């Protein structure tokens, strides 16, 4: 399955939610799986983004739906990027 990187920034409302219910993060991961994607790795980070998620999804349409559905709640802004495994990238570059 293709891999995607999701860079997430919480809104003020999202920060309130996480403060009052930190386990909400794990609940959202289950919702992502219900859309047909799978969270492979997840990190809380410091800097311009709050979370970095490595997600597998069958296609761009699925990951776009995840981004729109979660973003529409007003608690998070998401930047989604397809990720190319290095070996595949090197092989492609050699062509």
Describe the structure.
The chain has one domain (3-94): Alpha-Beta Plaits, CATH 3.30.70. It has 4 helices and 4 strands, in the order βααββαβα. The relative contact order is 0.27. The model has no long low-confidence stretch (mean pLDDT 95). It has helices at 12-20, 24-34, 60-71, 86-94; strands at residues 3-10, 38-44, 51-56, 76-83. Helices cover 43% and strands 31% of the residues. It is α+β, with helices and mostly antiparallel strands. The protein starts with a strand and ends with a helix. The protein has a 4-stranded antiparallel sheet. Strand 2 (38-44) and strand 3 (51-56) form a beta hairpin.
Question: Stretches where pLDDT falls below 50 for ≥5 residues?
Answer: none
Q: Briefly, what CATH class?
A: Alpha Beta
Number of strands: 4
Strand order of the largest sheet: 2-3-1-4
Major sheet summary line: 4 strands, antiparallel
CATH homologous superfamily identity: Lrp/AsnC effector binding domain/regulation of amino acid metabolism (RAM) domain
Please count the helical segments: 4
Query: Over all CA atoms, what is the radius of gyration?
Result: 14 Å
- How many domains make up the coordinates? 1
Q: What is the percent of helical residues?
A: 40-55%
The secondary structure category is alpha+beta
How widely separated are the two ends?
A: 23 Å
Shape: elongated
What is the name of the CATH topology?
Answer: Alpha-Beta Plaits
| Mean pLDDT level | 95
Question: Could you tell me the strand content as a percent range?
Answer: 25-35%
CATH architecture classification name: 2-Layer Sandwich
Order of helices and strands: EHHEEHEH
């Amino acid at each position: 399955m293709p891999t995607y990187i999701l860079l997430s920034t919480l809104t003020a409302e999202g920060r309130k939610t996480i403060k009052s219910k930190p386990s909400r993060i794990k609940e959202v991961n289950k919702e992502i799986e219900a859309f047909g994607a799978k969270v492979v790795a997840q990190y809380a980070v410091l800097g311009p983004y709050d979370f970095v998620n490595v997600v597998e999804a069958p296609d761009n349409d699925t990951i776009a739906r995840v981004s729109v559905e979660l973003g529409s709640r007003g608690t998070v802004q998401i930047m989604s990027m397809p990720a190319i495994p290095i070996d595949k990238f090197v092989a492609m570059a050699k062509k």
